[in-house]
Amino acid sequence: MDNLSRAPLYSGQIKSVGPRYCPSLEDKVVRFSEKDHHQVFLEPEGLDTYEVYCNGISTSMPHDVQEAIVNSIVGLESAEIVRYGYAIEYDYVPPTQLQPSLETKDVENLFHAGQINGTSGYEEAAAQGIMAGMNAALKIQGKEPLILGRSEAYIGVLIDDLVTKGTQEPYRMFTSRAEYRLLLRQDNADRRLMKYGYRNGLISNEQWNKLEEKERDIAGILTYLEKKHVGPDSLAKIVSRPDRTFDDVLSLDNELRQRPMSKEVREQVEIEVKYKGYIERQYTQIEKFKRMEDLRIPAWIDYSTIAEIRTEARQKLTQIRPISLGQASRISGVSPTDVSILMIYLAGKKKE
Ligand SMILES: Cc1cc2nc3c(=O)[nH]c(=O)nc-3n(C[C@H](O)[C@H](O)[C@H](O)COP(=O)(O)OP(=O)(O)OC[C@H]3O[C@@H](n4cnc5c(N)ncnc54)[C@H](O)[C@@H]3O)c2cc1C
User: Fold this and answer.
1) Cβ-based neighbour number of residue 67 at 10 Å
2) Which of 79, 128, 273, 341 is a good FRET partner for 187, with 20 to 30 A between their CA atoms?
3) Under a CB-based contact definition with an 8 Å cutoff, are residues 252 and 235 in contact?
4) Residue 139 in domain
5) Does residue 214 surpass a pLDDT of 70?
């Protein structure tokens, strides 16, 4: 099946955009014309059926062409097609019309999540779904929205990209889109995000206490490793060597061996010690980034009155209405000079 998205819903112009990441056979033939063969995986549809899904030849060509394609494959000369491939199309609403909470800017209390925002993918939809759901609930309760930062979660990167830059083709979340990949790890998801779940009533006291205990254990062992020396080097220094592991220092130090510590705590300690330099560098970058994110832009700002900002940037800022100087700086068409002017303007307004 070919997957097309039509965009944008509200601008009056509708265009078809093919997905880059699951192209149809007809698309592949053009894009990868230098290849002389193509692999097709035959996937049985189930235990009780003779139907087979041909993975790798999604297509919306006419039925007789589809038959010719399938029958040209070695082994499938006599295969019959039970259901023909087809193209799907969907409209999406340009996600720049959303606030970072996923509430639409124009219709208060309406939240959008998933494919309607121009994304493709199960996880992309699920990630937005949980955020839009939580933020709708928070809004009803009169509370501040939950907005995850780019340095805190892939969800933060996904939503910030969508609402700041929009998308011209079905958006997929790739790890390469995140600046702070070293910190966005699976093994530290609890340490990064559980606080938000706890604050919002999704995490029990018991789970929270466990995390606090884990943090205390990690901090305690890290301090111990820094302080305790074997010969000229601290235990931390020894663990940090490429050819050494945490197990090596356990065998060197009786006191450390006696300390009760879970597998998860050991893993975190080892990662933090081994990658300390890189992790610290990322934290420094995040600090810089955060300073810009913390400089909030009030909702009442009227960009048309700031003549010093270039016309294109003024238009983009008016359209996107960023909530912070950091977000403003990521809008394409807004230059560092425009951001500086905006910063000076806001500082002046604060004084008034
Ligand atoms: C053939 C195909 C294969 C795919 N394969 C993959 C894959 O392997 N991996 C992957 O990650 N993603 C895949 N995707 C993409 C993924 O399925 C979608 O991006 C994702 O499911 C979108 O989720 P969603 O909740 O935003 O929208 P949907 O799952 O489309 O949910 C929207 C729901 O709203 C309902 N609805 C619509 N209008 C109304 C209305 N007026 N009133 C009430 N209900 C309404 C619809 O019936 C539907 O149930 C595939 C998509 C297709 C088409």
Assistant:
1) 15
2) 128
3) yes
4) yes
5) yes
Same domain, 69 and 104: no
Write the CB contacts of 223 (distance below 8 Å, at least 6 apart in sequence): none
> Quick one: tokens of 7?
């965009």
Q: Give the 3-state secondary structure of residue 89.
A: strand
Task: Map 48-66 to HEC letters.
Answer: CCCCEEEECCCCCCCHHHH
Whether 130 is in the pocket of ligand 1, judged by its Cβ within 6 Å, is no
Question: What is the count of structural domains for the chain?
Answer: 4
The range of the structural domain enclosing residue 100 comes to: 95-181
Query: What is the Å distance from ligand 1's center to 4 Cα?
Result: 13
Same domain, 99 and 77: no
Q: What is the pLDDT of residues 77-98, one digit of tens each?
A: 999 999 999 887 778 899 999 9
Residue 191 falls within a domain, yes or no? no
Q: Which of 31, 65, 91 is the last residue of a domain?
A: 91
220 lines ligand 1 (CB under 6 A): no
pTM for the whole structure = 0.82
Angle at 167 between CA 162 and CA 171, to 5 degrees: 80
180 C-alpha vs ligand 1 centroid, how far in Å? 30
Same domain, 100 and 175: yes
